[in-house]
Design brief:
561 residues; Nucleotidyltransferase, domain 5; Rossmann fold; alpha/beta; 21 helices; nine-stranded mixed β-sheet; 26 strands
């Protein structure tokens, strides 16, 4: 009996690195170089030329015999291979037909051969999708010698047909280790099985699990527990068509981007590799459709080139951009979130911006506040928030029993026990003496009567007496305020962003609670937990924020501060 092999002990590398010297033409691998380039390559780099010649002659036939050993591996694949043993969770979010599923399937088959008696799980949305996608890909990537051998014996079984997939929903490969009693097993499961009976995912262990298409949040933690025995790995592959779902939010919120790449189509840097901050040992990889040699990626790029930005991000780059039910469809991290140090008046303090402070006082909850700088060209930057991420998320995604996306309180809502002086002192400490043109407050809470030692008062009067002067925001209908926010986010995202074609509202990447609220706010309930930061932005918008020059300030007499 072979000793137990742990997944992190195995070399995850397979195949032949892709070279731009070659390309696919109608399914046939051909040289991508001109005759002149080949002649020059032969003289300048004979080793590379020899390799190219050998691959052209040997690879096509060899790949049919053994797709794993002799198939091409793309640069994005190689990056995952190099990190496969270092990270427990690999999330691959790719554009349409970007090779994400193809790579994951080849990794499963590779590990099934490299690990004696490996326990492997391949999962999809339904049994039908498992048969048509997952099982078909596994069959196509098995070495031809396995398919030619006896399909069933005491230690392996590879009975497959296109209609029903693998017999009994599993493929048992021939043993690769002489001491093994059986070959490695690939089991095929689906999410519907779990939703019908969660116990079906208990009591087994796996070296690697591949879940194709977005996995329900309830299954995610269950699968991680199945990897403990073998120090296993979880591979998630999907195209993010529904935006920032609860699972996506959990994986990506606050993620650290470690590799970017410039998109000519979108004319901006996009993330290629990220590290999750919420899940240890989790790395996120983005596959671009245009990089796949297995499809006409350029044709797909042309197909989606005039679609809205969120569609292009999801369909071509695998990048989620908005909540499925969000009220601000134009707001995306890629467009509206700015590195704090790149905000113009932060990067260059000499640049004049008119600064506003907007506050939504809470009852038992902490007060919520944002700081906004308005530029001369009308662009607005939310550059500070309270509570910020150091106090924990203000709210978390959650769907209530009525099916409404209302969120739930996060640790940022924990009561502080502060009084008026505490808030005034803290806010002024955060500002560090910066010039605040105007302070705006929730008109309802700001004017509500409260009892003090001196008698009845309200927040506006009490804070004014402390030297912290508020102006009540206009009592405008909520929907009117939402419309003004969407106006500030509006731009033609089918065309490149320019000085004229640009949204007016941006958020510092340090303001994570504001960002999450913009993405998640659904407006489905007046008690929605993402509402507080949105209220602050509404109060700003209905108050008519503008850039105030020194000359104008002298005429008007200045703001309320």
């Amino acid at each position: 009996m072979p000793k137990v092999t742990y997944t992190d002990e195995v070399d995850a590398r397979f195949g032949i690195p892709w070279t731009e010297d070659l390309k696919y033409d109608k399914g046939e691998l051909v040289c991508a170089l001109s005759e002149e380039e080949i002649d020059r390559l032969t003289i300048e780099d004979p080793e590379r030329a020899e390799t190219l010649t050998r691959l052209l002659m040997d690879q096509p036939g060899s790949e049919k015999e053994d797709p794993i050993q002799w198939g091409w591996t793309l640069p994005g694949w190689r990056r995952i291979m190099e990190r496969f043993n270092k990270d427990k969770i690999h999330v691959i979010m790719g554009g349409n037909r970007s090779s994400k599923t193809y790579f994951a399937t080849r990794m499963l088959v590779h590990l099934a051969q490299a690990i004696p008696e490996a326990e492997i799980r391949s999962m999809h949305v339904s049994e039908e999708r498992s048969i048509s996608d997952s099982q078909r890909y596994v069959w196509e990537n098995l070495p031809a010698r396995y398919k030619r051998s006896k399909k069933k014996s005491a230690n392996h079984s590879l009975q497959y047909n296109q209609k029903n997939g693998f017999n009994a929903g599993k493929a048992i490969l021939p043993p690769t280790d002489p001491s093994a009693e059986r070959g490695s097993t690939i089991y095929f499961n689906n999410y519907r099985q779990y939703m019908a009976d969660p116990q079906i995912f208990e009591g087994w262990a796996a070296h690697v699990i591949h879940a194709d298409e977005e996995i329900p949040e309830a299954i995610f933690s269950s699968l991680l527990a199945r990897l403990t025995d073998f120090k296993g790995r979880l591979i998630l592959t999907f195209t993010t068509l529904q935006g920032w779902t609860p699972l996506i939010n959990s994986l990506l919120k606050g993620a650290e981007t470690v590799r970017t790449r410039y998109s000519e189509l979108l004319q901006r840097e996009l993330p290629v590799e990220q590290i999750s901050t919420n899940w240890p040992d989790c790395r996120i990889h983005y596959f671009w459709t245009q990089d796949s040699p297995f499809v006409d990626g350029q044709e797909l790029v042309r197909t989606y080139s005039k679609q809205p930005l969120e569609t292009k991000l999801a369909r071509l780059y695998g990048i989620p951009s908005k909540s499925f039910e969000g009220r601000f469809p134009k707001f995306t991290r890629e467009t509206n979130v700015v590195e704090h140090e790149r905000i113009p008046f932060i990067a260059d303090p000499s640049i004049n911006a008119t600064r506003y402070f907007i506050c939504d006082p809470g009852g038992s909850k902490p007060w919520v506040a944002i700081w906004v700088g308005v530029m001369e060209d009308g662009r607005m930057y939310i550059y500070r928030e309270f509570p910020d991420s150091t106090m924990g998320p203000w709210a978390l995604p959650h769907v209530n029993g009525a099916g409404k996306s209302v969120g739930k309180p996060g640790p940022g809502q924990k009561p502080l026990g502060w009084g008026y002086i505490d808030y005034k002192t803290h806010f002024e400490d955060l500002e560090g003496g910066e010039d605040i043109f105007e302070r705006i407050v929730d008109p309802r809470m700001g004017s509500a009567t409260v009892r003090t030692k001196e008698g009845e008062s309200n927040i506006i009067n009490t804070m004014s007496n402390l030297g912290f002067v508020f102006r009540a925001a206009p009592g405008v209908d909520i929907e009117a305020g939402i419309a003004k926010i969407n106006d500030a986010l509006s731009w033609d995202d089918t065309e490149p962003m320019t000085e004229k074609n640009t949204p007016k509202l941006f958020v510092s990447d340090r303001c994570e609670n504001t960002i999450t609220s913009m993405i998640e706010y659904s407006g489905q309930s007046r008690t929605e937990h993402f509402k507080d930061f949105i209220d602050c932005i509404r109060y700003l918008m209905v108050s008519g924020p503008e850039h105030i020059t020194n000359a104008k300030l002298a005429v008007s007499g200045g703001g309320s501060y």
